[in-house]
Amino acid sequence: MRRLLDAHGLAPRKAAGQNFVCDPNTVRKIVRDAGVDDADLVVEIGPGLGSLTIALAQAARRVVAVEIDAGLVRALGETLAGLGNVEVVHADALRIDLDEVAHGGPAKLVANLPYNVATPIVMHALEGEAYRELFVMVQKEVGERWAATVGDGAYGGVSVKLQLVADVEVAAPISRQVFFPVPNVDSVVVRIVRRDDAPTGDERARIVATVDAAFAQRRKTLRNNLRRVADAEVLARAFDVSGTDPGARAEELGVDDFVRLSAALAEAA
Question: Pairing with 233, which of 15, 40, 187, 251 sits 20 to 30 Å away (CA)?
C-alpha cells in the first residue's frame, strides 16, 4: 500500500476518513460473511486501493466500486487491472443515484465505509429500492448506535430511522491493526437487511419527521419536543389514540411506538 500510494503521489487523508483495509484474511472473511456469490451484483463505496474490491471480484458476478478521490481512482486502474467484472465509478456516493449505480438492483452493498460519512451513505442507499442487504465496516460507536434498542445508552434518532426500514446487527469486531494507517478507534462489521414491511414514500418521511422532532432535545419530554410539529390539541389527541405517555422522553419509545405515534399525529391534525 505504501508503494502504491508513493507511486501515485498519494497519502491517506484523515479528514476524508481514509483508513484502508490491508489484511487479506480480513477481506476474504468479509466477502464470505456477506454471503457474496457468483449471482450477486455488489456495490462497494470507498474502495480505496482495492483490497476488498479484488476479493469481491473473485466471488461476485459484478462489482461496481464508487470512489470520490481522483488520485485513488488512478491507483485503482493499476490494482484492478485485468478484472473484467469490475467497474470503477468516479463520483461522490452521496450525490449520485445509488439505485442507478446498481442498475436498479437487486444488489448488495459491501464496503469499508469512510468513517466521517458512514451514516449518511447507509441512509442514502436505503432511500432507494435496489439494496436488499448491506454489510459494512464502520467505527464501533457508529455501528453500536445503529443497532441500539430502547434501554441502550447509544439508542437515538438514527437507531430508530435505520431500524424503521431494516434489521440491524453488529456482526463482528474488526481489529484496528488490519487498517493502514492504523486508526485511533475500533471498528465493527454491521449487517443491515431491508425489512419487507418497511414504510416508504410519504409515510416514511412523516415518521422520520416525528423522530427528528422527538429527539431534538433529548432531555425534554415528547410533549415539549413535539410542539414544533403540532399544537397542543392535536398532540393531546395523538398521545391518547397511540397510547403514548406525553411525559416520556424519545429514548423510551421503540420503532413501533414511533410508527403508531406518527400515524396518530397525521390523523389528529
Answer: 251
In the 8-state DSSP scheme, what is residue 49? T
| Side-chain-facing half-sphere of 59: CA atoms under 13 Å | 21
Which are the contacts of 152, defined by CB distance < 8 A and separation ≥ 6? 144, 159
Q: Minimal CA–CA distance to 155: which of 171, 139, 144?
A: 144
Concatenated DSSP letters for 52-118?
HHHHHHHHSSEEEEEE--HHHHHHHHHHTTT-TTEEEEES-TTTS-HHHHTTT--EEEEEE--GGGH
Average pLDDT over every residue of 239-252: 97
What angle do the packed helices 255-268 and 232-242 form, to 10 degrees? 130
pTM value? Answer: 0.92
Q: From CA 251, how far away is CA 121, in angstroms rounded? A: 24
Question: Position of cell 413535539?
Answer: 226
For the packed helices 70-79 and 51-59, what is the interaxial angle rounded to 10 degrees? 50
